[in-house]
From TrEMBL:
InterPro entries, per database record: Aminotrans_IV, Aminotrans_IV_CS, Aminotransferase-like, B_amino_transII, BCAT-like_C, BCAT-like_N, BCAT_family
Organism encoding this protein: Candolleomyces aberdarensis
Reactions it catalyzes: L-valine + 2-oxoglutarate = 3-methyl-2-oxobutanoate + L-glutamate; L-isoleucine + 2-oxoglutarate = (S)-3-methyl-2-oxopentanoate + L-glutamate; L-leucine + 2-oxoglutarate = 4-methyl-2-oxopentanoate + L-glutamate
Enzyme class: transferase
UniProt GO cellular component terms: mitochondrion
Residue(s) carrying N6-(pyridoxal phosphate)lysine: K229
Region annotation Disordered: where it falls in the sequence: 1-25
Keyword annotations from UniProtKB, A to Z: Amino-acid biosynthesis, Aminotransferase, Branched-chain amino acid biosynthesis, Pyridoxal phosphate, Transferase
Name of protein: Branched-chain-amino-acid aminotransferase
UniProt record similarity statement: Belongs to the class-IV pyridoxal-phosphate-dependent aminotransferase family.
Any one GO BP annotation for this protein: L-valine biosynthetic process
Highest taxon above the source species: Eukaryota
Amino acid sequence: MAIQNSTTTNGTAATNGVNGASTNGVKAGPAPLDASKLVMTLAEKLKPLPEPESLVFGQTQTDHMLIVNYDPVKGWGAPEIKPYAPLVLDPMSSCFQYCPNVFEGMKAYVGPDGEPRLFRAERNMARLARSAERVALPPFDTSALLTLLKEFVHTEKRWIPSLQGYSLYLRPTIIGTRPALGVSASDSACLYVVASPAGPYFKGGSRAISLLAVNENVRAWPGGTGGHKLGLNYAPGFKPQKDAADRGYDQILWLIGDRVTEAGAMNAFVVVRRDDGDLDVHTPNLDGTILPGVTRSSVLSLLNAHTSSSLLLPTLPKTLKIHTHEHPITMPELKAWSDQGKLLEVFGVGTAVIVAGVGRIGYSGWGEELVLPENEGGLGPVGKGLFDMLTEIQAGRVEFEGWCVPVV
């Protein structure tokens, strides 16, 4: 699709019974999401670009947004890229009452050719569809949404900072808009995408963060929704996070009993030295309480690639073997590895932060803090190697398995 400088409709009306019309006498179902119906309404005046160093995560809006609505009879309407503006919603909308709200976090980067790129975006689209299904929101064509998302990124590409470690953060969101108070699934929805230029997630330079391990509050539970990216998963953590900050900790290490689940909104990784000199890298398994992070999956692939020598991490000896494990990790295990002098690194990974090293962990069951080995910049050799390689791949400077592709 080509960018238009005025309001246009790309493509023609679908022929599969759009708006409930009949085709050969047979009434068709609701219209699917159709990227060819995209309408472009570009802003008459563009905003000035902020200085990258002044950016605070998620606080700067770009010029435009992508939006499309779902009607239970007509189906998905015509998508539109238009100037960023508030949404108009009925006060009884389901999203306000029962939280059928799902979202994704992903980034666009500037490649060496100056063109924007997306990192493993098809995985974000698949996870968004799974999340929408979990709260019974209307289904959508993930390939159509990805096509629309690429056009949106192309429209906003001037907002992608060219500095290393900077990107354009994208937030695809689907909310239930059924205008009724009955306790039932929302048969109406609004799908929209907004964007915000982003720099380093944690302010104050590169440093190790601190975690407070808690089990009196939980982020997720067996049989719950922790494995999906739902808005309702986050609000219950705000008060415990505030309490942790008041005690001098950056984030929470979420536990179920004594079992580690996530670190803040990140997937957790633990590096342990083996007796043979190799490394074990542990991360909690995807048991339904753990979000299947795109960065998590990428980290596991890169660690295995180093061991197979198909792609070496720059900070590690090429002969070093890394053994990855996806299984439960408990607090007694962390303490035992630390006491034995085998615990080398703990770090969290996620789209916003990429890789964040951990310097200390507080836990009431220990009576004292667990202090990790100090590393320059807050990341040990494994975490630093992963951070460096991920940022090289995301910016298109290193090619690996087609993870990062231009939007056009």
